[in-house]
Amino acid sequence: MDKKGFIMEIIIFMVVGIIAVIFFAAWMYGINLINSSLISVESDNPSQNISDISQQTFSYYNSGVNYLKSMAFILMFSYILASFIIAWLSPKYPIMFILYILLTAILYIFAVYISNTYENLMTNEALGSTLSEFTGANHIILHLGFYIILIAVICSIISISGIYLRRNIYGI
């Protein structure tokens, strides 16, 4: 572990969260589009009914693809927990709190841009309806500025308090 701190984890949380949600939504949209196209295919031969074969084949897959909505939220939540763990494992001195506040302000600006871009993407004709199904991840991304500040402040407190707790436990 390089012990650089939790700021990089917050950046990764922002980037991976938005990419995962958009990728999962595009995947769900593509699968639903393919499935509905295969169901609507008409066949002259009754023994080769493509719509029945498609419904039998893709029914299990479609039910599994719906779990991507919760997977996106779990991925984002796990990065939040990873930020807390990294903050505990890489204690910093209290003077670093000022630097973390400045970096958090910069991250807040980027988070607002990401949140607004995501909100514009939700109004898109193609992916908008699919993205609106990601309720947990949508909440985090649409309120990303608040979550970035909250995570950064909590991680700063954990990181700074880790020094004093280790001194008391280990006598360092």
Report the total helices: 7
Please summarize the sheet with the most strands. Answer: none
Q: Point out poorly predicted stretches.
A: none
What portion of the residues fall into strands of 2 or more residues?
under 5%
Number of domains: 1
Number of DSSP-assigned strands: 0
Rg estimate, integer Å: 22 Å
Describe the structure.
The chain has helices at residues 7-39, 50-65, 68-89, 96-122, 128-131, 135-142, 144-170. It is elongated, with a radius of gyration of 22 Å. The mean pLDDT is 83. The protein has one domain (7-170). The longest helix is centred in the N-terminal third of the chain and has 33 residues, at 7-39. It starts with 6 loop residues before the first helix and ends with a helix. The chain is an all-alpha fold and 172 residues long.
Key terms:
single chain; 172 residues; mainly alpha; 7 helices; 0% strand
Write the layout of secondary structure elements.
Elements: H1 7-39, H2 50-65, H3 68-89, H4 96-122, H5 128-131, H6 135-142, H7 144-170
Helix pairs in contact: 1-2, 1-3, 1-4, 3-6, 3-7, 4-7
Give a concise summary.
The protein has 172 residues and is mostly helical.
